[in-house]
UniProtKB/TrEMBL annotation:
Biological process terms in GO annotation: glucan catabolic process
Fibronectin type III-like domain location: 685-754
Superkingdom per UniProt: Bacteria
Organism of derivation: Erwinia tasmaniensis (strain DSM 17950 / CFBP 7177 / CIP 109463 / NCPPB 4357 / Et1/99)
Record-given protein name: Periplasmic beta-glucosidase
GO MF annotation terms: beta-glucosidase activity
Subcellular location(s) of the protein: Periplasm
Amino acid sequence: MNWICSVSLAVTLALQPAFADDIIGPHQQTPQARDAFVSGLLKKMTLDEKIGQLRLITVGPENPKSAIRDMIQQGQVGAIFNTVTRQDIRQMQDQVMQLSRLKIPLFFAYDVIHGQRTQFPIPLALAASWDLEAVAEVGRIAAYEAADDGLNMTWAPMVDVTREPRWGRGSEGFGEDTWLTGEMGRVLVKAMQGNSPADRYSVMTSVKHFAAYGAVEGGREYNTVDMSPQRLFQDYLPPYKAALDAGSGGVMVALNSLNGVPASADSWLLKDILRDDWKFKGITISDHGAIKELIQHGVARDPQDAVRIALKSGIDMSMSDEYYSKYLPGLVKSGAVSMAEIDDATRHVLNVKYDMGLFNDPYSHLGPASSDPADTNAESRLHRAEARDVARKTLVLLKNRQDTLPLKKNGTLALIGPLADSQIDIMGSWSAAGVAGQSVTLLQGMKNATAGQATLLYAKGANVTDNKGIQDFLNLYEKAVTVDVRTPQQMRDEAVATAQKADVVVLAVGEARGMAHEASSRTDLTLPDSQRQLIRALKATGKPLVLVLMNARALTLVEETQQSDALLESWYSGTEGGNAIADVLFGDDNPSGKLPMTFPRSVGQVPMYYNHLNTGRPYDFEHPNKYTSHYFDEANGPLFPFGYGLSYTHFTLSPVKMSAATMTRNGSVNASITVTNSGKRDGATVVQLYLRDEVASISRPVKELKGFKRIMLKAGESQTVTFPIDASALKFWNAKMQQVAEPGKFSVMIGLDSVRTENAEFDYL
Ligand code: BGC
């Protein structure tokens, strides 16, 4: 053994946790082994060390690195978030191993929402792909890149169902539907955690925000949620349950109150439902500062009271406040909080650390310093091909008059719009460690696609908004929006002159990414006025007009739909967005995305969702009647329905074939449909199954999504898709809060969107 080896062996031994003698042989991932290990460790911990484990903090002005070092030394911190380089993470883990008494490793977490280094399309866009394999790939790569940066946990997936386009955080979720959201959550948890979050390239997930955050009143951020138990259990809770059944180790608790009780103070939610009914064994984490906020909610008198209530309600770990550390010791001393309660919460933290493999190897997601990338942002660390492939699948073609699209790669094309060349916006919000400079804008993507074949002209045309108040809001924390100093008229004149030289105009309009984010609720769902004026000016040129939308919510686009010849919803499509959009614009790929949210005609219709109840006086388009449920000043119904999206080819549907006219109790039936690609191009589409319980003990939705399948068909090809239906698809929560499938007639609707469907029925006996 040379001296280098012996030094490194000595260092390794010194860094072994003090309890290393408890670990015999390989790390055993059985619940029994974990319980024994964690119980043994708990016995060695002081009260302060236990309370330290319940604290999750971020490095920043409030907690500079020097302060964190001291906290680590005193065993006063359990986990860190927002630190994303191996060097920084290793340094903190070294401090634990070198300075703390028990050497309990930290875990490191981050908001890896749609990628870590590579930005994939935002979650709402991923939902628009309806492609579970693609979403699994996003999860695997995001986890890989996160784990490669040394992270152990992600604050994702967000499975907050929302019917509120005014709410900015709809961008982080999967839209309005319970089933679709649940499927997305389930697949992402499986993909990100892999076989085990302890694996080198897996991370533990933390499903959020439990519960019903997406239903904030009026879509106003952080607002109140009040809903019937039936709606909560039928529509809002199942996606969290699906993600937890898939094995998520963590749950982040919502900021909102639910029926008057703030989620962080809701022992019914966090204990009765989560732990007792759903048997959740992982960790609950408060959202940012949520424990302090119990005072503002008006359910806690003072900080001590807030801490007592949160801990007793079932919040294991507190995010970003010092309250647990400051007040729990006194609360235990006074007997207001018992040692058993502290042990319970600490056990949950230690359990997940065990599951992350940290007691086996605190550096498991780091590797040796010699393996650190020389450049954290190196191109070689990105997964561009996969990002482009997934992004193509998320684009939704909303209109295509007389086959305006695909465009030809010849002649002169004009690309105009404030979002056409914005690297930051195309990444989308919550872009983790993504670097704007690495994202491909639409301008770059179109240049790549047309190089040497067509002339491409560009003009910005407008600022994303001319509203100074909104510009300042968007630029509050970062230089997010660059405001052109020219007057709006000068910019429009340049755009019109550019358009006049072209055969066709592509116009990239929408929202700056900061308009669809946390704390970004809107009262207005139209495009900003600067952009609407630009569209009108370009429409007046008479050139064919292709609108490419970049936004992260359902917008109201009645005028723009009339003005445009083609309308492509591209959401925020990520690092490779510009290339992916160009692939679709030029027909190198055939669009196949479908809307995961209803697009209303006006904001006054909100909430507007496809799975509504029929009411006693449903509006009938064919026989309009004053005394029916509608608005008299707006056409009834959505602009674009849930599940909608066009293709460059045409699909035709056969009638639905049922395997039987009746379904017995505990039996099942199959519903089949044959889809034919009757157009001239190969293409993918999404076959959607909806059910309706025609007569039940409570009024049931006019339809509910109960299955879907994305299929790829060559031109001329047909495929039969079969959906098995069993009693689980028929069940609902009745007036007595029993989950039942009631006998009677069920309608089966299968289509390529939620409106135009082929229908059949069966009787449930
Ligand atoms: C958000 C969470 C997020 C957390 C940490 C909070 O403001 O509500 O979704 O995970 O910050 O960044």
